[in-house]
Amino acid sequence: MNLISFFSAKKHLSTLCLIALFLLISIHGTAQSKEDPDQLRKKISQAESDSQKVELLLTLSNYYLTKPGELKADLDSASNLNFEAKKLSITLDYKLGKGKSILLEAQIYREKGDSKNGLKKTKEALAYSEKNNLPVLKADVYRELCAYKGYEKEDTEEKIKYLEKAIPLYKKNKAYKKEADALKDLGDYYGSIEENQKALQLLENAVAIYKSIDFKELQGVYTLMSDNYGILQNTQLSLQYALMAEKTAEEVHDTSYQLCTIYNHLGLAYYDLLKYDLAFSNFEKALNIALENKNTGDVNIISYNLASLYCQQKNYKAALRTLKRTAKDYPPMDEITKVRQTFIYVVCYSMLKQLNSAKPYYEQLLKDYKESEAGLVYKLTGIIIYLQQSGQVDKTYAYIEKFKEFAKKANRLILYSQIELLSFQSDHASKKYESAIKHLQKHQLLRDSIFNSEKLKQSAALQLQFETEKKDKNIKLLTQQGKLQEIKIHNDRIIRYVFIGSVIVLILFLALLYNSFRLKKKKNEELELQRQQINEQNELNKKMLIEKEWLLKEIHHRVKNNLQIVISLLNTQSAYLDNEDALMAIQNSQHRMHAMSLIHQKLYQSDNLANIDMSWYIYELINYMRECFDTDTKINFVLDTEKVYLDVAQAVPLGLIINEAINNTIKYAFPSDRKGEVIISLKNVINSDYKLIVADNGVGLPEDFEDTERDSLGMNLMMGLTDQIDGNFEMKNDNGLKITITFTRNTEFEVIEESSETI
């Protein structure tokens, strides 16, 4: 089964949706009140009026209520301060203060987990605000009522009704900050029920109000906009707003838990654009923050995002490790999260051919499927994949029909694409080749349709960015023209004064000024023409450079894909061979192909298209060999490499030499389950000379090696590749076998190397 298509799934750009559906899980952080408690206490003691003192007491109480963590001492402080504010409000007959204290008391109950009394107090605050005509407080109460609703569609629609009542009250009473906050929340709720265009419109209105009152902390709004653009499959704007959220958080020095949300959305945006290294980096940042704050829900979400990304790269073992890392301390609490994690376990174990391990999770999915429709896509796909991998293909067709029924209701193109791929895989396994080809063709048509749609949206985003930049330039030009006009008016006034004083001086002055003006104008025109020509040439050069870089990356991408196709073809061929030597030859060829594929994979993912970091390459190659031969318990690999950059002409031969040396070591150095150690070293000797050593403490070379093995393919390949890089090849027994290759690094495409470090 070709899972490259399956795990490249995202909701818009790729062939399947399952992993994408998970990756679109977003998390939202709540910012704490930023007031300094010591400063607030000082202001309370210096309050000019009792009503001002009430407001400050309520602000300090709210600070402790929203303080990160769930310490009882903080909630007690919030409750005591609120009680003091309420008592003083009653004494002063300060109705607004009393109403705010009732609402704050409700929020404290809710934070303590006493929802019953919290809701009771909230309703009391609503009745009080209506009785005493306090519209802003009434709007605050509507926002608080949202907290008592869940995340089902019906509850979300109730929350939308509350906010749509609150927003006009804020607007009418010019409570701009609260109006913008409510618009942001309303946009969030509309996004959760998949009315994303409506959500974006509301969020843009919120941004406009925030900017009008010079409110700088817009990172939360930008994060929600990124989320909605991502769901609408507009990857360009999704990334743009995610980056704006990160930049804004840095500018306002936001260190709150909201950073977890920002990094998670950045990871999602980079995933959409196939920048997996950046996606990994941001997911890791988000996970670290969630772990520090012990947020179980977000830990599960981000761990799942990481596991999904590993599956996208077919690294199923890493995906399993990622989920198991947090499984003990942060078990999933809700049903859909449990279903998603069970789904990943089924897929990973099935693709690793560990069907005994996959079976309990498959049975759990089957049980959940019969009990409810929550996470139906995950359940159906997991069941189908297990049945395909376990040889029960006939049973998959019934579940594919169920999948079609679900897709018809959801009416999403990507679901139909996935159904066609699953159908192709079942038909292919059942040897229904004609039907399989038809399903594959439909799948490819649907995939191309999704891809083309995405390209159009990216083009629209780029056009919008261009138009925005053009407007900014026009504004700057108009500003400059206005300043020139002011200078001209000032000069005319001076000329008039001089004319009154002396006609002769005026004539001489005007003649001189006119001549100077003509020369200056002519010079300026010449300079402007030169500047335009230079700018046009620079833009042309920049465009050509970008196109060449893109083409070069595309070449590396295609070379890597072609090598992967050859590997798959060899793997398919091996299934029809019974000759052990032939199978071994094909396996060796696959390893060599993978060694070359790693080079091109790194190059098209990297901004540096000329050179490759060999320390990274050797590390990835050894991991691949270790997994292929399952040597974790038998052979210990020790890497001692410096950060060395080689061009492709040297990196490919050196990678093949290492592949051959490690391959031979694993096969022959440690017979009869003998344990041992292999050392791989690549270091600079002097200037541009480097030395590669592959040494083991195994049985070494046999005494008659020269006569029997020198003409083998592996030895000829290593010596021939050494000659190709103009190096020296040496092989000897030294408490095992030691292969030493010295060569001179090609410096034609020199890059600035980072400080050397040992892996």
What labels would you give this structure?
disordered N terminus; 5-stranded mixed β-sheet; two-stranded antiparallel sheet; Heat Shock Protein 90; 72% helix; 759 residues; 6% strand; alpha+beta; globular
Which SSEs are present, and which pair or pack?
Elements: H1 3-7, H2 18-23, H3 37-45, H4 50-65, H5 72-92, H6 95-112, H7 115-131, H8 135-145, H9 153-172, H10 176-192, H11 196-212, H12 219-231, H13 235-251, H14 258-272, H15 276-292, H16 296-312, H17 316-327, H18 335-351, H19 355-371, H20 376-389, H21 396-410, H22 413-429, H23 433-501, H24 503-574, H25 580-605, E1 611-613, H26 614-629, E2 635-641, E3 645-647, H27 648-669, E4 676-686, E5 689-696, H28 705-708, H29 713-724, E6 728-733, E7 737-744
Parallel strand pairs: 2-4
Antiparallel strand pairs: 1-3, 4-5, 5-7, 6-7
Helix pairs in contact: 3-4, 4-5, 4-6, 5-6, 6-7, 6-8, 7-8, 8-9, 9-10, 10-11, 10-12, 11-12, 12-13, 12-14, 13-14, 14-15, 15-16, 16-17, 16-18, 17-18, 18-19, 18-20, 19-20, 20-21, 20-22, 21-22, 22-23, 23-24, 24-25, 25-26, 25-27, 26-27, 27-29
